[in-house]
């Protein structure tokens, strides 16, 4: 039996017991107080969800199964998926087995390409990705298992099978979308000898034979893998999957959330902002000019993309990792230089502006500069790269949720009148 399933079979009963014990012994204890400003403020800070794949500490950033993300930057995405799922990094044999499992499932059915090729030319690449994923729903192993009467304690097994199929096909689908949507020529076939991230880099057809580009892609895919359970994409996926809609429906729903400009789409907005400044000043402007541009953006009611975060209150370590990579390999790059200048200036501008609770850069402030350096100038595609990576987190969270036999998600909503009654003197 593959090590991934063996570990899960051993650990799932232990994790279940842990949760059962908590409910039985402490089920009626309060863990979070909810203020009216939170009810009206996107539930910010309300602790009402469980997610064990990763945690975002406001002062530390992403921690994957107890390991800070900056300690995982030399790992490859398959290792990260294994870690997200099990809480352990795979040894060499377990990694090889997972890669073999991916390879066995990686063939993209022809009908997916037919669907993509029939879409209007100006479709957003995220809409294309979602439609490709939804078109494969008919293959869901979970749905087949559910319809044949498989019991709740075993739902996770077919959900894991769906996750492996989806993840194994995703790089080829995403690379195919890039080549089709942006007229890059025929699709490049998958190379079964390459790893997941290396294959993705290869199939995109940019910087062929450039091992640094493949390393950048692996790093990108590792850094974006998961960001606990309450962000829009993870939470949406979680809610949809809790209705026992299979992973094709749930991941596609989550990715629709990722496609919003306040979430994953910010990476395309961010590079646009950087290039717009470069264009306006015919190069990197001086600090005072950058400050003025930033203030003008804020005064016109727009956000400075790539800055701020709902949870983080420090520079996102993922931004740090991407910038360090860029500085190591192409520090003379103009876009990267401006990204670094913005990092010196924007936080003070946002502090002075006084609205954003977190003036520091998030992951999106840096990622576009690296992609652009390698000739990927199609900003609209950037969120697809984010999506390929984040699917690991959404899949891992869903498998664990099904393994924990979590019920359908259904928080209580209230009317304004109820809120007013809570604060009235009578
Ligand atoms: N530029 C300008 N204003 C900003 C800002 C920024 N970068 N970040 C926050 N603010 C503003 C908010 O718009 C809000 O203003 P209003 O009160 O007028 O609505 C105010 O500051 C308070 O917001 P907050 O509590 O600090 O931030 P939120 O938790 O509400 O929102 C986020 C978080 C990321 C949506 C926000 O910081 C933002 O819009 N940033 C720019 C877009 C971006 O980079 N998104 C990517 C996030 C990473 C990801 O999830 O993918």
Strand % is under 5%
Total helical elements:
19
Q: How many beta-strand elements? A: 3
- What number of domains? 2
CATH architecture of the largest domain, by name, is: Orthogonal Bundle
Structural class: mainly alpha
CATH topology of the largest domain: Citrate Synthase, domain 1
Portion of residues within helices? 55-70%
Question: What does this molecule look like?
Answer:
The protein is mainly α and 426 residues long. Helix content is 59%, strand content 2%. The protein contains 19 helices and 3 strands. The protein has a 3-stranded antiparallel β-sheet. Helix 6 (125-135) runs antiparallel to helix 12, helix 9 crosses helix 10 and helix 15 packs parallel to helix 17. The radius of gyration is 22 Å and the shape is globular. The mean pLDDT is 96. The structure holds carboxymethyldethia coenzyme *A.
